Amino acid sequence: MRRATALPPSFDGTARFTYDGSFDGLLCVLLACWESRRWPEAIQSEDVAQGGLFSETQFVPTDEARARRVWEGMLKYMPGEARTNLYKAFLSESPERELLIFRYVQLAIEAGGQDISENFGNDTVRAIADITKQMFREKHRMEAFVRFEKTHDGLFHATIEPDYDVLPLIAEHFTKRYADQRWLIFDRRRRYGLYYDLERTDIVSFDAEAGQAGSKSAVSAAVLDEREPLFQSLWQTYFDHVNIPERRNIKLHRRHMPKRYWKYLTEKQPRERHFRPIDNKQRPQQ
User: Fold this and answer.
1) Would the CA dihedral through 138, 143, 147, 153 be positive or negative?
2) Which residues sit opposite 277 in a β-bridge?
3) What is the mean pLDDT of residues 119-134?
4) Which long-range CB contacts under 8 A does 120-124 form with residues at least 24 apart?
5) Per DSSP, what are the bridge partners of residue 184?
6) Pairing verdict, β 156-160 and 149-150
7) Given this model, what pLDDT does residue 136 score?
8) Mean pLDDT across the stretch 176-181?
């Protein structure tokens, strides 16, 4: 096992750490590693942790003050963008994300504040960079592929099922873009969402049943605005008309719009209703 020589000066042994699964909780684990001088053999959320035969397991409680101390202290050893990338790595839900984050911070401390973000010869730095790229792509796909449905009370609802936990990363985009309307974006896989009430955007949770409801959306058709089917049909019609058959490239289309997202895209749903253009709105006689 590699022994670190950064602050604290040495590690006296190894240990397995568990925490509550939150990012603040992970920051507290990092501090516990340094304070106890124990190199983490594993860092896992307590609900998925597996014990080792010959190593000590320590649960680290979450303390917001201690987490803030670590988060702010990171800026002594890395630029703000690198610190943000560690948060993105945490949201990736990669099984190794906790250890990668610890190792990255430890490397930054050992470098004495020198930026290590482009040291791609290091496995840890390269892994964080790769995860960050994946998160960047998923974030921008969600910003492009969200399709809202209007309910009868004026709420605009959208269901998504991203590969990674990107809701915290897209909150600012939708808050700025749709600041004049109430909306809810629901992550069906993780059973929580973002809710904007015209004043602030909050994270809201849902029960298990909400994550299983419906095939396309967690919103029943009974609560949709009566004009919503018309608007969806108009969008489908527009999508069909801008399509140029001679330039169709299915392979390229699926690369830019992966098929796993189609079930939540209005333009990819079956054409159930067709509306003809209004032709009885003639100008009044002069």
Assistant:
1) positive
2) none
3) 97
4) 124/100
5) 157, 195
6) antiparallel
7) 97
8) 95
What pLDDT, in 10s, does the model give residues 78-105? 999 999 999 999 999 999 999 999 999 9
Give residue 272's pLDDT. 57
pLDDT per residue as tens digits for the range 259-282: 676 565 655 555 555 444 444 444
Contacts of 135 (CB under 8 A, 6+ apart): 88, 89, 91, 92, 164, 166, 169
Task: Return the number of other C-beta atoms located less than 10 Å from residue 239's C-beta.
Answer: 13
